[in-house]
Predict the structure.
Amino acid sequence: MSTGSRSAYWFVAPAIILMGLIFFIPVLMALGLGFTNYSLGNSGFDFVAFENFEKIFTRRSYEKMWGATLTYVLVVVPLSVLLGLAAALAINSVTRFRDVYKTIYFLPVMATLMAMAIVWQIMLHPTAGVINRTLASGCDVEFAYGVLSGAYFGFDPLTSWYGNACADVMPNWLGDKKYAIWVICFIGVWQNFGFNMVLYLAGLTSVSRELYMAAQMDGAGSAWDRFRLVTWPALGPTTVFVVTISTIRGFQVFDIVEAFYGFGSAGPGKSAYVMMFAIFEKGIKQNLIGIGSAITIIFLIFVMFITLVQRYLVERRVHYS
Amino acid sequence: MSYDIGNSLKHTALILGALVVILPFYFMLSYSLQSQREIETGLSPGGVNAGFFGSQSLVLDKDCLQANTPERKEIEVAKTSYPGKTEREIYNILLKEVETSCSSRPALMNYSMAFTKAPLLRYLLNGVIVTLSIFLIQVVVALPAAYALAKLRFLGRDFIFSIVLLCLLVPVHAIALPLYVILAKLGLTNTYAALIIPWTISVFGIFLMRQFFLTVPDDLIDAARMDGMSEFSIIWRVMLPTAVPALLAFGIFSVVAHWNDYFWPRVVITGDPNLFTPPLGMRVFKQDTEGDLHGPMMAVAVIVVAPLMIAFLMAQKRFIEGITFTGMK
């Protein structure tokens, strides 16, 4: 208790003040403003109780928000976690080019998402984009058309997706309600799974060799048995963490949507109206701080909930190790 | 034998995955070198496949042509050099000259337009100012706090640490709206301060550095105290040097996050292009040139993405360690 106990307060003071200003006050403000109809520039505001929340859970435009957000999270989290795990297992089991694969898969994690979203948009252009041009050129190649449209397998080509696209027009990936949110999910997976991969690779280094040997002696011969009995349980804590962080990041998707549809709408028929976009649009663009804060509160509740589940799972696991 | 088949299957899958991952990077680079026509059709003049580099045949900059189209006055002046020609002929000769001077190779044109169509240098400079300020302030705030939490005993230490853990749960992007309201009330939107302030404290940095300092032996600090060093200089002259690896990891994490961040700048910067960060500038560039200047747009993208990519490729181990290490709380 002697040396430095007084200076200690000086050392933590800036951090405490900033935590108060940047975390506590804003969270409290959101908690308060979510129950009002506050707007910047207005002199007063009213307490509206749960009116904002009622809107969020009943109005049609927010139905779109839930649809888009949950679709994104429920597609991107499992896929990016599974692909991350698969990539990590594959890379871990080969002997050559490990670093090359690791580097390539990690590139999208580092790259400015805004830049990459614009590249994807050019590639996905309905007529001039390289993806549809490639698809369209396949229509004239008998073999490609036969395989992709199912004609070679005795199906009516016009009942297949590809046959239809060849006969009619190639899909408008970003402008068609049918595809937009799925394309955004694809780009989300493309960007995120490399991050999960490196976390799993780090997790794999901690799986001890003895466990595999013990499993082998107990008769777990096949690769699947080894994975099921040793690798997967050992990766449990990593999985819990990876799923948590992917989910929290998933709720924050914004850049891709703004890059594609940007300064106005949120995709065809609002099909890409994700939560952060809603907060931005309502709270900042339309100056409806009350509604924006209510969405913020819901967002924070989600984050808390996910973290509590994570903590619970982690603590339950402690007994095993 | 079965091992070999399994192995080649794995490599095949990994290579296919790698191709999909790399595809947009390939096209970003390739498009930044090609003309608009080549980007849109995939074909070079004469109908051959444009390939990676395109044909690099001359293209005309229409804006340049428009700005320099020969006018009445210039034709009058030129009359003396072309005796006996009609005005129409002189006009055509002059126009040819302008066209030649306004034509250039697509690669060159794209990259020069990237800097002339928008103040890209300014955006990059802003990006550097903002990311570096954020990192420096984060370190200045986090190191002393982490040192106190790890190595000093004082009343309330555990409580303060639990506050740090609590803040760790809140993603700053999630509370962007109330932060924006505060900054707007203070009249700080559209300033560098608005770009930097919400990130001045990294609770994560404090947590990370504290965990690191816990592993530093107490003897080292006691020896420094014996030498008569103040607690303040212990932080900067004893702890800081030992913390370089952890700081580097944290620095990579911080710089990557804020160089790439689009959401926060989009919230607090409205309109003043002098404050745009690279992702924001890129977004506005796209808006202003909608669909028209893919080549220059891609050149901008390459320039914005390149610094981190090059740093990453040169020090991949450190980057991957940094991001994983910082990811694993």
